[in-house]
Amino acid sequence: MKTKEKPEKLSDLTKTPSGKAGSFKLTDVSGWKTFKPVLDEDKCINCLQCWVYCPHGVIERTSDDQAISIDLQECKGCGICADVCPTDAIEMNKIRGVDDE
Ligand code: SF4
Ligand code: SF4
Questions:
Q1: Which of 4, 5, 51, 86 is deepest in the core (most CB within 10 A)?
Q2: What CA–CA distance (Å, rounded) separates 76 from 71?
Q3: Which runs of E-coded beta strand occur in 16-67?
Q4: pLDDT mean over 40-46
Q5: Is the pTM of this model over 0.90?
Q6: What is the CATH number that goes with domain 13-95?
């Protein structure tokens, strides 16, 4: 049985838990998404809960591990990141659509 080596530090982990962003890749989904996550960096404590739970692997740690960034082109707008964030640093904002016109 193959055993995985335990990472010694955070930077040894892959950029996202599910590997490369785009497991459900449809390329640019910005056309049909209803909500998008907006990060308030002042509230973020870098706990990485959002990074762990994002089902699409579109949240990445920055190279210095001090922050996260969200790939809005690949984000599906599910809101899980906002739900799990302990400091409400992520807010789901409605994207303007046909209802607003
Ligand atoms: S809204 Fe969903 S897909 Fe987008 S970053 Fe948050 S958890 Fe990931
Ligand atoms: S869950 Fe919230 S506090 Fe934690 S890293 Fe993500 S945005 Fe920052």
A1: 51
A2: 10
A3: 35-39, 59-61
A4: 94
A5: no
A6: 3.30.70.20
The domain spans of the chain are 13-95
Residue of higher predicted confidence among 48 and 26: 48
1 C-alpha to ligand 1 centroid (Å)? 34
Q: What share of the chain is helix, strand, coil (3-state, %, to 5)?
A: 15, 15, 70
Chain length of the chain:
101
pLDDT (tens digit, 9 = 90+) per residue, 71-94? 998 899 999 999 999 999 999 999
Query: Bridge-partner residues for 91, per DSSP?
Result: 38
Q: What's the gap in Å between 100 CA and the centre of ligand 1? A: 23
Q: Which residue has the tokens 């899980």?
A: 80
Give the pairing of strands 90-94 and 35-39: antiparallel
Per-residue pLDDT averaged across 30-35, rounded?
Answer: 74
